[in-house]
Each structure stands twice: as C-alpha cells, then as structure tokens.
Write a sequence for this structure.
C-alpha cells in the first residue's frame, strides 16, 4: 500500500511528464550550463555556437537578444546574436515550426533592421 506522500509525489511526477509531452509544438525544454532552452534543438544550436566560439570563429555570442520595432510596441526576441570574427553580425532563431506571428515579426525585423541578417536554423 502506497503512502499518501509517495502517491502524491508519483502523481505530481506523472502530471509534470504529461505537461511536458503535450506542449503545443512538442518541444521539450532543456537546461545546459544552467541556462533554460525552450527545446532540445535550441540547446543543441547553443552547444554548436559555443564550440565555434571556443574555436575562435565567433567573437561574441549573445543569448535571447531583444529587438524593438520602433513605435509599434512590438518586441522580437531571437535565440542568438552572433558576431563573427570578421565583425559580421547575424541573428539566429532555432525554428522547428514557423508560426504566423513569427512570419510577421520576421518581416518587421527586416524592415526595422535592414543591416542585420535573420536566419532560421
């Protein structure tokens, strides 16, 4: 016979697993270097960029950079802001699925930040 504490702990664990498994886009959050990433893909992309930075290919790597679209009140948060060793700056977003909102924000990004490149990985 299970004790009430053990049963409630088991129930909480099962509910937590079900909540993770039933996310809207089926992504599973992961923690790497104490940083929470919204998906395994984003976490893997971080590890790839981190390795490139260690190899000297990347000068600067920023996580979750924010871009404001002037006077619209809309802010776009990308996944990575990479400055390459040659000084070129690129913005990257780990995408498994491109939502309608993302497509609109990408167009706004291109309009307000024409000098930057936004890439999906």
């Amino acid at each position: 016979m299970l004790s009430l504490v053990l049963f409630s702990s088991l129930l909480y664990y099962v509910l937590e697993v079900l909540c993770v498994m039933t996310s809207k886009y089926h992504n599973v959050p992961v923690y790497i270097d104490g940083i929470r990433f919204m998906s395994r893909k984003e976490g893997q992309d971080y590890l790839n960029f981190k390795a490139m930075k260690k190899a000297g290919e990347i000068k600067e790597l920023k996580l979750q950079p924010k871009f404001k679209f002037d006077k619209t009140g809309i802010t776009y948060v990308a996944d990575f802001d990479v400055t390459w060793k040659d000084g070129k700056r690129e913005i990257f977003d780990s995408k498994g699925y491109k939502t309608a909102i993302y497509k609109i924000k990408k167009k706004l990004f291109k309009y307000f930040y024409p000098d930057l490149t936004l890439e999906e990985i």
Remarks:
- The first helix runs from residue 4 to 21.
- The chain has three helices and eight strands.
